[in-house]
Amino acid sequence: MTESRDSDEVALGPTGGPSWRTSKVAIVGAGAVGSTMAYATLMRGSARTVALYDINKAKVEAEALDLGHGIQFMPMAEVVGSNDIAVCADADVVVVTAGAKQKPGQTRIDLAEATISLIRKVLPPLVEVAPNAVYVLVTNPVDIVTYAALKISGLSSTQMFGSGTVLDSSRLRYLIAQHTGVAVQNVHAYIAGEHGDTELPLWSSASIGSVPLLEWNGIAGRGPLTSEVRDRIAREVVESAYRIIEGKGATNYAVGLAGSRIIEAVLKDEKRILPVSSLLHDYHGVSDVCLSVPAIVGARGVGDRLEVPMSADELAGLRRSAETLRAAARRFGL
């Protein structure tokens, strides 16, 4: 796979003249998440070609046509949509958003059986047409699905990973920014563990500007982040997806943006630190489970996992989260 595939990169063609080397993203699933992610990817100018694949021919072609009509107002790109998996051929990044739809009151784990069954069908032909792509799973329950996809595909734990808690960490930073009155871009905090009910905020390593979050005393009449405030924020991060699903049926805007950010980190070989879900090997004593920890994401996929210092409570929470996911994996015969 090419180390960097920016849309403005030029190489010499066979005749010695310039030949544009283009980046291609294939998005599997043209539902609310997939189509929004395609839109976000195009708006950000992340890739030169965006290919949508879905078994619903009319739906996927309509989504591609609608997006294509807006290309005049975006960075130049090509959009294609098809119910033929060949549309994903030679993609640099394949993002899998297809899966069972989460209903109000349903947990992410409840979705696992149906989504894993779908992954068993769609993944082998995807790997056949795009063997060198970096694969990103953005379908719930993402940690179990990523673990299953690794077993099914035989791809390496570098080449395939899940979106993990990238969105959860964004929600966490948003809520901290709301409480403290500072720009969300100046809040540095991660959610680790399961993308779900056992996820945990890494408070001990979080900061606001250069001030450790646990030492934040408040400004402009805004109070400090007491343990009660932190507990309320952590609960809201976990419950926010359920609240959105209850109100509008699906989460799509923020997850679409989060996915486009992961795509960019791969295509531009940014070496960006993102809390993606990947297969761990003796991370703080945790192994053989896919869950989220801050990791370096670049052209080859997910690289080194950062050994973030954790408090005793955080370590215990991470291990509880890992055991919850292991139990779920055993339940599905993985």
Automatic annotation (TrEMBL):
Q: Name one GO cellular component term.
A: cytoplasm
Q: Name one GO molecular function term.
A: L-lactate dehydrogenase (NAD+) activity
Tell me which Pfam families the record gives: Ldh_1_C, Ldh_1_N
List modified residues, type Phosphotyrosine: 242
Annotated positions binding beta-D-fructose 1,6-bisphosphate:
173, 188
Q: Which residues form the signal peptide?
A: none
Active-site residues, record numbering mapped to chain: 195 (proton acceptor)
Catalytic activity reads: (S)-lactate + NAD(+) = pyruvate + NADH + H(+)
The UniProt activity regulation field reads: Allosterically activated by fructose 1,6-bisphosphate (FBP).
Q: Where is the Lactate/malate dehydrogenase N-terminal domain?
A: 24-162
Which residues does the record give as NAD(+) binding sites?
A: 29-34, 54, 59, 99-100, 138-140, 163
Set out the biological process GO terms recorded for this chain's protein: glycolytic process; lactate metabolic process
Q: In which pathway does it act?
A: Fermentation; pyruvate fermentation to lactate; (S)-lactate from pyruvate: step 1/1
Annotated substrate binding sites: 102, 108, 140-143, 168-171, 251
Q: What is its main location?
A: cytoplasm
What keyword terms does UniProt attach to this protein? Answer: Allosteric enzyme, Cytoplasm, NAD, Oxidoreductase, Phosphoprotein
| Compartments in which it is found | Cytoplasm
Enzyme Commission identifier(s): 1.1.1.27
What the entry lists under InterPro entries is as follows: L-lactate/malate_DH, L-lactate_DH, L-lactate_DH_AS, Lactate/malate_DH_C, Lactate/malate_DH_N, Lactate_DH/Glyco_Ohase_4_C, NAD(P)-bd_dom_sf
Using the record's annotation, list all stretches that form the Lactate/malate dehydrogenase C-terminal domain.
Answer: 165-328
Describe its assembly: Homotetramer.
Record's family?
Answer: Belongs to the LDH/MDH superfamily. LDH family.
Main role? Catalyzes the conversion of lactate to pyruvate.
Matching NCBIfam families: L-LDH-NAD
Supply the name of the protein: L-lactate dehydrogenase
Name of the encoding gene: ldh
